[in-house]
Amino acid sequence: MTSTVLASIPSPSISTIELGPLTIHFYALCILAGIAVCMWLTGRRWAAWGEDPERVWDVAMWAIPSGIIGARLYHVLITDPGSYFGEGADPLDVFKIWEGGIGIMGAISVGGLGAWYACRRYGISLAKFADAAAPGIMIAQAMGRWGNWFNQELFGKPTTLPWGLEISATSPNFPDQYPAGTLFHPTFLYESLWNLLGAALLIALGSRGIFQLGQTFWAYVVWYGFGRLMIETFLRIDTAEMLLGVRIHVWTSGSIFLLGIVMFALMGLRARRRGELPGAYMEGGLESNEDEPSADEPAPASVRSGN
């Protein structure tokens, strides 16, 4: 198989570094770098819309821990419950997050609940804040996916394409049914590029003032959900829970894709009923109303390390 391959993407030989008693995982560094970029970009956008950029930190104090908890819960309860609650499993392993196992769809949904609470606490429109954060969230996801590259995990089917991904035959993630030297689709790269393209489109379209309040965020949900649905349906081969013979991630990504379409349309209909001009909220035209959260604060619903 490898004789027909013109080139390939090598995988790193290490995924951690030791600093005395500390073990630093490159995956964690990718996630932290993504969070930093997300906060920086969200702060820039929030300030450009006439808002206090310090509020980004206030919301992050609630959203980030909530997102970490949600990411872990998604992995434990949806992706791989058998490893924690099956025969011979130790339920206390649920808390060993340093051993890996988080899911972006849980991070966004539960992190969204943390953001909702913070926005209510500080009198901020959740819809407006979510619009400001959406491109940064996509970039953070794009950067976080490179952690899968360091861990040699969550790759796709075998391929002879020139950008096939090398996985060490000694890696515990190498599928036993394939011979050593088999190359695989680099799904981490596909999803990373998809998210970067999506972030660029959100910024470009948003700068033209064509989105109504809330539509930037739900456009992100649609874009991410569709990309993830395609990867899960046609490429991913890692072990996952099945529902009616289909990978559970196909169901979840398909659900968030459809949810995103519905909510995007509803945001547009609501704005037209109110006579709001597209993009007006980015120019300080929206005043948040803490007493009416249902009017302009649609809480994000369940929308990767990575699952």
Task: Give a topology summary.
Elements: E1 16-19, E2 22-25, H1 26-48, H2 54-79, H3 82-85, H4 104-122, H5 126-144, H6 146-151, E3 165-166, E4 183-184, H7 187-207, H8 215-234, E5 242-243, E6 246-247, H9 248-274, H10 293-296
Antiparallel strand pairs: 1-2, 3-4, 5-6
Describe the protein.
- This protein has 307 residues and is mainly α.
- Helices cover 55% and strands 5% of the residues.
- The chain has 10 helices and 6 strands.
- The protein has helices at residues 26-48, 54-79, 82-85, 104-122, 126-144, 146-151, 187-207, 215-234, 248-274, 293-296, and strands spanning 16-19, 22-25, 165-166, 183-184, 242-243, 246-247.
- A two-stranded antiparallel ribbon has the order 1-2. It has a two-stranded antiparallel ribbon with strand order 3-4.
- A hairpin with a 2-residue loop joins strand 1 and strand 2.
- Helix 1 packs antiparallel against helix 5 (126-144), helix 5 (126-144) runs parallel beside helix 8 and helix 8 (215-234) runs antiparallel to helix 9 (248-274).
- The longest helix has 27 residues, at 248-274.
- The chain is globular.
- Mean pLDDT is 88; it is low at 1-5 and 285-305.
